[in-house]
Amino acid sequence: MFRANDLNGNEVKGGWCKVAGRHLIIPLDAQLSTYKWRNSNLMQIDNPVEIDPKTLAMDTTVKDKDGKLIYGSLEYEPGEMSDGGDSLKDIECDLIYRVCFGTSEFGLGWFLKAIPARNSYRFDQSVSKLEIIGPASEGDK
User: What is the pLDDT of residues 72-125, one digit of tens each?
Assistant: First the structure.
């Protein structure tokens, strides 16, 4: 699942796609319409939501120490990383990390990027000491 802000700044969740240069979220409650055209059955998704791709984040399926689902930033265009993922704070040493999906020294997958930029760390299920403190863009400050 993905989350992002629509063009009015409202959070939406659902499936993400890019059509004709527009980044869209298909909401979880979207309605599908089917109709016949020539010899084919076509489907249309009613009410896709155009989003600001810089706010895009993907569900990691992992929860922080408080049980909140962690979302990570990802590349929405080649070389363009979103800021929509979560920033996490290590409660034992006060380090702040940005959650990212992409290629790192660990290969393709989820990783934590220390802020300010130091090293990257493998992102795994060991998040019992981490808590979400806000979007990645806020953790960078």
Answer: 999 999 889 899 999 988 888 878 888 888 877 777 888 888 777 666 566 654
Closest by CA to 4, choosing from 53, 48, 73, is 53
The CATH T-level fold of domain 56-139 is SH3 type barrels. (2.30.30)
- CATH 2.30.30 domain locations along the chain: 56-139
**Cα gap 46→60, rounded to integer Å:** 27
Q: For the chain, where are the E strands, in sequence order?
A: 2-5, 11-19, 22-27, 31-37, 40-46, 49-50, 57-63, 69-77, 80-81, 86-90, 96-104, 107-115, 120-122, 130-135
pTM of the prediction?
A: 0.79
